[in-house]
From TrEMBL:
Basic and acidic residues bias spans: 193-205
Segments of this protein annotated with the region Disordered: 193-214
InterPro entries: DUF4547 (IPR027875)
Name the record gives this protein: Single-pass membrane and coiled-coil domain-containing protein 1
Amino acid sequence: MNNETTTLISLKEAMKRIDHKLQALEAHFKELDFIKDNLTQKFEDHSKTLANQGAQDELWTAVLSLKFTSMELNILYSYVIEVLVHLHTRVLEKLPDLVRSLPTLASILRQKVKNKRIRVVWESVLQEYGLQEGDITALCIFFVAHGNKAEHYIAKVRQMYIRDINFMISNMVKNQALQDGLLKAIQVIEKGKAETAPKEKKSPLKELIPPVKS
């Protein structure tokens, strides 16, 4: 074997070693990229969680700081509870086989996270009503904060006491997310009432006057 052949073989072996090292480096860099992307995603998720938590804290503060009278709170509560009931009912209409599994709106909110079928139906229902997740968060917080002491008033009673509830909300609710949620709740109920108005029957006077607390 002459010197040229030996040199050529040595050069090929050296090239193979270099190629192997390059492949190892490439694999290492791919692993580092994966770790970087994973850490970036975790950081973004954590940032979103903190932002959502901060927004919910602000919502709670806003809800608990409302300066409405008990009558005004009752009227707002009536709109809120009616919207939540409508949402629950509409989801069950689309998922009749899951009626027993979804006895409350809270059960829908819990299960939609892991159940794609429920999530898709829930999102379609929100779209039907022109609502977003942020609106539901605001309405649920309002319900939890005031539901234990508020009373439900039917539509005609609400109109007897407050003529322009949209103005009242816009004027007194400063938190934008809460204001948007309440205004949309009013819109949903008033729109539904207008669509079913010809079918409504007149209620006796005793049903129009809310009970007086002692």
